[in-house]
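TASK: fixed-backbone design
INPUT:
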């Protein structure tokens, strides 16, 4: 999780909202093969994305989930 400089809050995925980018199916945060993925930000309810497992950071994305 990171703090977004544009929003000023921590970017945290809402539990159960993660989806694989490739097919839109539910994703598991601990499964490296599910990345990249999108989710809903727990703090603000906006779309977020993470491109890489473990070392990737979540960031706000423009695309709807």
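OUTPUT:
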């Amino acid at each position: 999780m990171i703090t977004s400089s544009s929003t000023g809050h921590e970017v945290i995925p809402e539990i159960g909202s993660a989806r694989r980018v490739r097919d839109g199916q539910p994703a598991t945060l601990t499964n490296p093969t599910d990345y990249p993925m999108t989710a809903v930000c727990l703090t603000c309810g906006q779309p977020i994305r993470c491109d890489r497992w473990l070392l990737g950071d979540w960031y706000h994305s423009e695309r709807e989930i």
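COMMENT: The longest strand covers residues 37-40.
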